[in-house]
Amino acid sequence: AEELGRLGAPVRVVECELGEPGSVARAGSVVLELGAPDVVVHAAGIVERASVADATDALWDRQLEVNLSAPFRLTRALL
């Protein structure tokens, strides 16, 4: 954001906890208050390292929430 600002690009940082659907919805609302974006780049993600035998359902669910569900929810909110 700082580098883009120095280059003269308009920048607005919208923080969001991708593992919380309500936070994703709020971020979408904040973005739309600024106007519909021309481009959305989903570039956040997590990797929960564990063997299949050691991976818990909670670990698996969080990874899917952040990496798959959050981009879907944000895109839907922006449409």
**Main structural class:** mainly alpha
The percentage helix is 40-55%
Mean pLDDT: 93
Task: Report the biggest beta sheet as strand number plus sense, adding barrel if it closes.
Answer: none
Radius of gyration: 15 Å
Give me the number of helical elements.
3
Number of strands: 0
Shape: elongated
Description of the molecule:
By secondary structure, the chain is an all-alpha fold. The chain has helices at 2-6, 21-34, 57-78. Helix 2 packs parallel to helix 3 (57-78). It is elongated and about 50 Å long. The two termini are 24 Å apart. The model has no long low-confidence stretch (mean pLDDT 93).
Record the SSE blueprint.
Blueprint: H1 2-6, H2 21-34, H3 57-78
Helix pairs in contact: 2-3
Summary keywords:
79 residues, mainly alpha
In short:
This protein has 79 residues and is mainly alpha-helical. The chain has 3 helices and no strands.
